[in-house]
Amino acid sequence: MGSLTDADRSRIEEELQTAIDALPLPGEPGETMRGQMRAAVAGGKRFRPELVIRSFRSFTTRRPEPAALWHVAVAFELLHGAFVVHDDIIDQDTRRRGVLNVRGTLAQDARRTGEGLDASRRVGDAGALLVGDLLLYAASRTLLTADVRPPIRGRLVAHLDEAIAVSAVGEWADATHGGTDSAAALRMTADKTAAYSFSAPLRCGALMAGGGRRGPRPRWDRHPPGYRVSARRRSHRRLRYSGASRT
Fold first, then answer.
1. Residues 6 or more apart from 196 whose CB is under 8 A from it?
2. Phi, psi (rounded to 5 degrees) for 243
3. 224 has pLDDT over 50
4. Sheet strands (E) in the chain
């Protein structure tokens, strides 16, 4: 699977903004939410949409590539944004990559308008929860409205459903200290991240190309070999530290 071109990466950014702009968020509060949605998905390596596109291209050389491919690809970046925002609420973090995150920004804005510390934290939590929910909706909406045949759409939705459900279980295991031994920590980390970061994007890209009609599971089950190694390393750290954050 070849690397993405600059044009490919520009297309991803354009489709992300289009998906966010498509939501009918009224008035000044709506624009605040939209601005924070944009902030939540700003930067990053776009690893998940890249996997969708590269998986597609490994199965077909069909040109032009369907617009739906890009919609499915950015759906996983929107999903990642949603999980990151919710993860920061769970961990009570106010910064990500060294700068204020959605929760921290909205809490800071509340403080500037005269809210007390506790009230501003509640505002930050409420706003981040809503922004995460909107990103989750935008991810689902973008995938559901992709111009594909109904049988393909049904299977895309099934992959998205599994990714969301498995990731939520992994997040809960992390929040409740479910990874108390090496095997459990590995499973928690894999569920929390690999289902939506690796398995689902790869499968959806192949599906868009016409591959995997019988839906076989990859040789490495749900999680790529390289992820198993990195997840195992993280699991040992998880035994010493309770937080396994998304990146």
1. 48, 76, 79, 80, 83, 163, 164, 166, 167
2. -105, 130
3. no
4. 95-96, 99-100
CB-neighbour burial class of residue 39 (10 A; exposed 0-12, middle 13-18, buried 19+): middle
Judge contact between 36 and 131, C-beta under 8 A.
yes
Q: Name every residue whose Cβ is closer than 8 Å to that of residue 132 and which is 6 or more positions away in sequence.
A: 40, 81, 82, 83, 85, 86, 89, 102
Residue 233's H or E segment, with its range, is: helix 225-238
**If you ran DSSP here, which 8-state letter would residue 222 be given?**
T
| Crossing angle between the packed helical segments 6-21 and 47-59, to the nearest 10 degrees | 120
Whether omega before 225 lies within 30 degrees of 0, making that bond cis, reads no
The answer to whether 78 and 118 are in contact (CB under 8 A) is no
Q: What backbone phi and psi angles, to 5 degrees, belong to 176?
A: -100, 15
Identify the weakest region by mean pLDDT among 52-61, 112-121, 134-143, 209-218.
209-218
Angle between helices 182-189 and 225-238 (to 10 degrees): 120
Q: How far apart are CA 10 and CA 15, in angstroms?
A: 9
Q: What is the pLDDT of residue 212?
A: 54
- Residue 162 to residues 140, 193, 222, 238, Cα–Cα distance (Å): 12, 12, 11, 24
Which tokens is 3 given? 């690397």
Residue 70 zone, left/alpha/beta (φ > 0; ψ -120 to 50; rest):
alpha
The single residue listed with the structure tokens 């505002």 is 123
